[in-house]
Structure formats: C-alpha cells, structure tokens
Amino acid sequence: MAPILAPYDPVAANATSFLQPPNAMHWLGTDAVGMDILSRVLYAPRIDVAIALGGTAASVLIGTSLGLWVGYYAAAGGIREILSFGIMRVADVMQAFPVFVFAIALVASLGQSIQTLLVAIAFVNAPIYLRLMRNQALAARRLRYVEAATVAGLSPVRIMLRHILPNSAGPLLAQASVNIGWAVLLTASLSFVGAGVRPPTPELGSMIAAGFQNVVTGQWWPSLVPGIALAAIVLGFSLVGESLEVLTDPVKVRELVHDVNLHKAARTKP
C-alpha cells in the first residue's frame, strides 16, 4: 500500500525543506536532506521485511532439511552417524560466534548488497532450525506411527517427509515468525553501521543512522519515527510467533477452548 498511501517520492530530496518538524505538509517531518519521513517509513518495510522473509525462508529450508536428516540418522551407526555428528559440530562452531559480528564478516567478505544480506540472515539462522528439527526428529523416531511406517516398508525419505516433518511443523512455524522479526532487526542493525542497504533507499536502520545525530540538537523526528516503526514490526512478528506456538500445540488449544467455555458459562450464569 506504500505507493498509494505515501504523499511524496521516498527518495526525492528538497534542499528548501530540510529538518522540518511535523506539520500539515509533512505529517512526520523531513530529514536532513528534505526527504519526507512518512513516505520513507511507509516504503522502508518493503525492503526490511522482504529481506527478512527471504533470508528466514532460506534458513528454514536449509536448517530443517539438515536437522531432519541428522535427527533421523543420529543413532543409525556407520558413516551416516559420523556425518550427523560432523554436521552438529559445524553448527556448534557457527553458533559460537556472535551473530552480529558473524553477519558483518559475511557482508565484508561477500560485498555489500541485498543478496549478501539474504545470505547472511540465512547463514546465521540455519543452525537454529537445524537443532530444533533434530530434536523433533529424535523424539518422533520413538513414536508408534513412525515405527508402524518403518514396519510397513516405507522408505526413510518418505517417513521423514510424510510423517515426521508434518507433525513437527508447529514449533518451526512459531520459531520462524520470531526469527523474521529478529531478521528485520539484524537488517536494520547492519544498515545502521553502514554494512546493509545503501542510502537513499528507504530502510529503517539507515534512516535511524542518518537522523540520530540531530537528536542532540532537538530534531528528534528523523530518528525516533523509524525507530518506533522498527519496534512495532519486531513486536508484531513476536506476537504472531507466540500465537502460532499456542495454536499448533493441541494441549494448549484444548486449554484455551476450555478457558473460553468457562468464560462463556460464567457470563451466561444467572
């Protein structure tokens, strides 16, 4: 909706209207080069959320695939168990580095671009889904329906894709929603230090970086407004993740339905 709602071009600078406070012409004011902050805040999530969605989707695909394989063959013996052990040790090494420093190192080595940000987000998030899916697969291998599928002669790939993965999707979806918000924050953080999206492309982190120096002189709007927008996006995805965690857990759904029924009964009781 940004092209419809934005009153100005998000990258159009106007030297005669720089650092204007919120007014009738610019509802959220202008920045140091005269660009309308409302228009840029409306356009910025198109970049941040798109990068977060793409990077998180890649990390879910890579981490879930490896975690499913590692969890299923963790105690299989032979070369498969050795490979499973090796993959987990590589994941340990990746998670030993601070995430932000690791992402900056990837950007520095691969070059500054949106594609590099996608790779960085996918790379730093993949071990999370690897470990989560591994634990789910280890638990599912001991359940009766997996044993029945094995006795029925189904191939390991079919058992993993048809039986283990669908029954383990709930925690993955909840974690993915939380990680999308975290990926938005990581993208903004990299742009804030100059390693992410380059100006004048509207992006929340670079907008905060360009405006924070003016806060000490009283011009708070170039930095505070995109900061509030960034906090709202991250909070929104976190709340969605918590909701998915409840809705994909049968026990919690039954408890929720029970509480709702008790509330209705209490309201209708004379």
Summarize, please.
The chain has 270 residues and is mostly helical.
Could you explain the architecture of this structure?
The chain is an all-alpha fold. The chain has a single domain, classed as MetI-like fold (Orthogonal Bundle), CATH 1.10.3720.10. The chain has 11 helices and no strands. It is flat and about 75 Å long. It starts with a helix and ends with a helix. The model has no long low-confidence stretch (mean pLDDT 87).
**What is the H level of CATH, i.e. the homologous superfamily?**
MetI-like
Q: Identify low-pLDDT runs.
A: none
Q: Helicity, in percent?
A: over 70%
Q: Which structural class best describes the helix and strand composition? A: mainly alpha
Chain-averaged pLDDT: 87
User: Which geometry do the CA atoms define?
Assistant: flat
The name CATH uses for the topology is: MetI-like fold
Name given to the CATH architecture: Orthogonal Bundle
Question: What portion of residues belong to β-strands?
Answer: under 5%
In total, how many domains does the architecture comprise? 1
Largest sheet, described in full?
none
Distance between the termini: 48 Å
How many helices does DSSP assign?
11
- Please report the total strand number as a whole number: 0
CATH secondary-structure class:
Mainly Alpha
Radius of gyration: 24 Å
Order of helices and strands: HHHHHHHHHHH
